[in-house]
Amino acid sequence: MSLDLRVPMGLMFTLVGMILTSFGLATNGEAIYAKSLGINANLWWGLVLLVFGLTMFFLGRRSQKRLAKLPPEPVDKTLSRLGH
Amino acid sequence: MLNLTAVDWLIMLLYFVFVLGIGFALKRYMKTSKDFFQAGRALPAWICGLAFISANLGAQEVIGMGASGAKYGLETAHFYGIGAIPAMIFVGIFMMPFYYGSKARSVPEFLRMRFDEKTRALNACSFAVMTVFSSGISMYAMARLIQALHVFDGLFYALGWPQQGIFTFSIVLSAVIVLAYIFLGGLTSAIYNEVLQFFLIIAGFLPLVLLGLRNIGGWSGLKASVPAQYMHEWHGVAHASTNPMGIEIIGLGMGLGFVLGSGYWCTDFLVIQTAMASKNMAAARKVPLIAAVPKIFFPFLVILPGLLAIGLPTPHTTTTERNINGMIVRETNVVPHNVEEGRGLVPAKINPVTGQPMYMANGEPLLDYDMATPNMLLHFFPTGILGLGLTALLASFMSGMAGNVTAFNTVFTYDLYQSYIHKGGTDKHYMAVGRWATVGGILLSIATAYAAINFNNIMDTLQLVFSFVNAPLFATFLLGMFWKRATGHGAFAGLIAGTSAAMLHHGLTLPIEAHPGIHGGWITVVHQYPSDMAQNFWGAIFAFGANFIVTVVVSLATKARPESELVGLVHSLTPKPPKAHDVWWKSPEALAVAVLLMAVALNIFFY
What is the model's pTM? Predict the structure, then answer.
């Protein structure tokens, strides 16, 4: 399978993280954070998701690049299943 | 009142775009029916492992475990410690070599290889019917929750659509999305999205637990605010009257651990299909073990919100007066009556006819435990992260549904259509049938969801029938894989006997304080159980026992299959799986021991 799940998943969490972080920055100190005990939940959790998303994305990209450099896998599927 | 803003909708929309995008991206890899139904048997172990638990992490799990946490406390963790972890280790180490090694494409097909055609037909038919109904029940629960949380109320108001349409809108929306990504990308798409949903559920619920714990004053604060027996998993478990669930150690260990837990994790194609999609034998065996690692920590994520909801102070209507520049501002924070009558953040149940909170005979409010986790989300999350939390909730509903749908289309196409309706078609033909079976399965699920609105009891009745069918299953697989003398006639007779025993047991027993009918005792009441859970566990024990005994007796009376036909299907006749050239600590056995030690340590901690 040549679609590494970590790439789209990392991208999604990066985007969600970016949305939450910037929204958190824009609303910092507003009354909506009374709910979350005065903690800017959007900003902090957005940063966590941003780091997670970027890590996933780059891990996925790295392994896809490494796979692309390898010689193409044998076409015979039964053989590739027996290997490793 | 729920106030969603643009940022919440943006996050929800982003999730839908990625879910569908993964389906479209995978479409070009779907060349044969093997790609579509079995993900090409080419996925890495960690992806299949996370999908393995995510397929089970549906609505019933997230909402139900929170509800159970609020009702029974940490004793709920038995569903993990006893009900799941040992079974997941067992299926990985001992059963996966036969499932994966036999090259069966589905669990019913394995039954045909090991036993005979009629055992497979019985299992395939009951399984196909159950998956369709389960996904319908999941859809119904989701639409009801969306209504209760008023998620789409604002959107409908803004668009001028009638509020009655929310139920249908929720069902159609989730059905169309799940249908699209499975139709395009088959099992691979379902598995990829289940992994995405797994991480999303953690992203949505972990901050909830952290905020809840902080509010209540940490672990010690939680201990101080709930009754003492809520904080122990094992205290008082020796006798039914001394623990919140009303069960005792034998019913718990045998019924939940050995029969129900193993019956689910070791035989249900819904979860087994993800392991069978992995790229080689070592990976397939590691799948349930990798799944067990997050499973050990899931009580923190799904049970704790319910427990916190019970422990937090109940909100009341308050009026505060503030003096702003000489102007007196009076702010009233109105809390609905049923919330004020509840305990903590768990509201009282509302009588749908009068709109008033309902009370039990002793005057205490009847609590709506299913709202424990959703109410925590609304209580702690400001707009922004609230969108993430609600998306996680939606994701959990969809992942449960998707697992059912892919299991249905595989069993329908391979075990019913290819075997009994149209043999010898081309591979392309079966792939098309699989795609249309997906459409048919989802339409039947929608029909089930609508039937559930009109017939109040349909959900309870269906779940009861499922328990009759599922309870004896594990005995058949256990004997099939570890006793070479077991025969097809024996397995078939045993399954029928086990299901009959479960029905008979239910008809003859009743939990205390229940009336004969849907809760049992519809023949006559010969025994009363302290709780419905005890009744359920003991019913499973009887069903398992009846199946075991009848299978053994009938097998001994019928002709055994020649041993040469059973190689790769029965333990004693199968050569040991070849040692992978990995180092010892990467082997499935080492992983299993590590998981077991972790689970034991956690149970000691919560003693």
Answer: 0.87
Mean pLDDT of chain B: 84
Domain that holds residue A38: 6-79
Would an 8 Å CB–CB cutoff place B211 in contact with chain A? Answer: yes
Distance linking the first and last C-alpha atoms of chain B: 39
B43 touches chain A (CB under 8 A): yes
Residue B479 lies in a domain: yes
ipTM above 0.95, yes or no: no
For residue B144, tell me if it sits in a domain: no
Question: Considering the domain boundaries, does residue B334 fall inside one?
Answer: yes
> Angle at CA B317, nearest 5°, toward B315 and B323?
115
DSSP B357: B
For residue A35, give the nearest of B196, B203, B380 by CB distance: B380
Which residue range is the domain that position B503 belongs to?
A: 458-569
Measure the CA–CA gap between A24 and B10, rounded to whole angstroms.
14
- DSSP letters spanning A40-73: -HHHHHHHHHHHHHHHHHHHHHHHHHHHHHSPPP
Is residue B443 less than 8 Å (CB to CB) from chain A?
no
CA distances from A8 to A59, B72, B326 (A): 12, 39, 56
Whether A84 is covered by a domain: the verdict is no
CA dist list (Å): B269 to B263, B293, B405: 11, 21, 11
